[in-house]
């Protein structure tokens, strides 16, 4: 009897050439890039968690939405987050989520999640450069700028 198994295939197909990728040099630039690419019809409705995937030159390879949830929170599965980071061969990430309420302060849950992701990233030699909180006006809070990353 022949044993049959599924074949697993992983692909990453960039559509833009690297010379056209924006280079992130500050939290304000990262926040602007993400905000410009956020669905403005939903940013004030529910929380979403996204990652900005970066190469070794801090150029943006892409943005990936990890989850979207309710009005006051969203769940983040670290296995999915790191599957995307590893599949895209990213060396650094910027974590981003929105607060539909307009509150710019991170909750304890936000801080705990950031620590958990950073710990796992350290093990995989992936840098977590920042965690941004965006609000519907485009203003942001940066964990790195505030020294709590």
From TrEMBL:
It comes from the Bacteria. Gene3D superfamilies: Cytidine Deaminase, domain 2. Keywords: Hydrolase, Metal-binding, Metalloprotease, Protease, Zinc. Residues 24-149 form the MPN domain. One of its GO terms (molecular function) is metallopeptidase activity. One of its GO terms (biological process) is proteolysis. This is RadC-like JAB domain-containing protein. It comes from Leeuwenhoekiella marinoflava.
